[in-house]
Amino acid sequence: MSKVVYVSKSRLERKAGPVRVAHLSGEARPVIYSVHGAIAEHYKVDPAKIGESHAATEAAPHRRS
């Protein structure tokens, strides 16, 4: 059996809608992420309701032509 060498201590906070705040080991400040552009469009999220744009943690699915 493998030996555990590291356990990540992180905490995620859900804010309004898709906005999240991640508290991660190794980061001095919390990391804010959300959806933007094509990702927001795919999930039918109104950018006006999010406020400030932030990086996303996933890519929108590829659209086939």
Question: Would you mind describing this structure in some detail?
Answer:
It is built from two helices and three strands; from the N terminus they run βββαα. The chain has helices at 37-42, 47-50, and strands at 11-14, 20-23, 31-33. The longest helix is centred in the middle third of the chain and has 6 residues, at 37-42. It has a three-stranded antiparallel sheet with strand order 1-2-3, with no helix packed on it. It has a domain at 17-60. A hairpin with a 5-residue loop joins strand 1 (11-14) and strand 2 (20-23). By secondary structure, the protein is an alpha+beta fold.
How would you sum up this structure in a few lines?
The protein is of the alpha+beta class and 65 residues long. It has two helices and three strands, in the order βββαα.
Kindly list the characteristics that best describe this protein:
65 residues; alpha+beta; three-stranded antiparallel beta sheet; 17% strand
List segments where confidence is low: pLDDT < 50 over at least 5 consecutive residues: none
Radius of gyration: 16 Å
**Order of helix and strand elements from N to C terminus:** EEEHH
Proportion of residues in helical segments: 10-25%
Q: Largest sheet, order of strands side by side? A: 1-2-3
Q: What share of residues are in beta strands?
A: 15-25%
- Please tell me what the overall shape is: elongated
> What characterizes the major β-sheet?
3 strands, antiparallel
Helical segment count: 2
Provide the structure class: alpha+beta
What is the β-strand count? 3
What is the arithmetic mean of pLDDT?
Answer: 82
Distance between the termini: 47 Å
